[in-house]
Write a structure and sequence with these properties.
Beta-Lactamase, 2 domains, 8 helices, alpha+beta
């Protein structure tokens, strides 16, 4: 079966997933053999520029390289930014492989977190006892996104099963690589937080990221 015919079988799945996930979740199908015009199918586009024939974003290419490097079938629930819109998203990617195990396509779910963040802010106001300080970090999504990112940091560090103070240099670098793969360093101020948790300098974190 030709590559295009093989990948076309997944287009109905894009429509199916879009109906289930709703309008806040962009569903995309990429052909990894043509990165400059990779987008084969899309529903609930996050940007007017995000249309059929669009190229694969740099972040998506990084996920593709991760799939090739690790051999994973999929990567789920990592933090990213929407295509050309700058919104934080929760993303998951399924790697479509041929008979030889090579990645020929990527099926992605990108869920905009801004609506959830606003709901988080409103619920916080409704449950608050006393006066609400309108000037106290009013962009509620900023706080809830930070909470999400810090939760990812704790999860990744905890998965190593070793107190950061006792981690080797290589283990700390692996933590930074894992956090970078999840997109946490897209948020301003995270480098200093990770440096503090790993008991290293910010310069060390930047060196690990190179």
């Amino acid at each position: 079966m030709k590559r295009n015919d093989f990948l076309s079988q997944f287009i109905p799945l894009v429509d199916f997933m879009a109906e289930i996930m709703g309008p806040n979740s962009e569903i995309v199908l990429h052909d990894t053999g043509n990165l400059e015009k990779s987008l084969l199918s899309i529903r609930n586009s996050s940007s007017p520029e995000r249309e059929l024939g669009a190229g694969m974003s740099e972040f998506a290419r990084k996920i593709l390289n991760e799939g090739r490097r690790t051999g994973k079938r999929f990567i789920t629930n990592y933090l990213g930014k929407s295509y050309n819109a700058g919104k934080f998203i929760k993303a998951s990617t399924y790697f479509i492989r041929d008979d030889e195990g090579e990645i020929v396509g990527m099926l992605g779910i990108n869920t905009d977190l801004s609506a959830l963040s606003e709901a988080h802010r409103l619920l916080g106001q409704m449950l608050y006892v006393g006066e609400i300080d309108e000037e106290a970090d009013s962009p509620g999504d900023r706080m809830s996104i930070r909470e999400t990112v810090f939760g990812v940091i704790e999860q990744v560090i905890g998965s190593f099963g070793t107190d950061p103070v006792r981690m080797t240099t290589e283990e700390k670098k692996e933590v930074v690589d894992a956090l970078d793969d999840r997109g946490v360093f897209l948020l301003k101020g995270v480098v200093s937080e990770v440096a503090s948790r790993l008991d290293v300098s910010e310069q060390t974190i930047y060196r690990y990221l190179k």
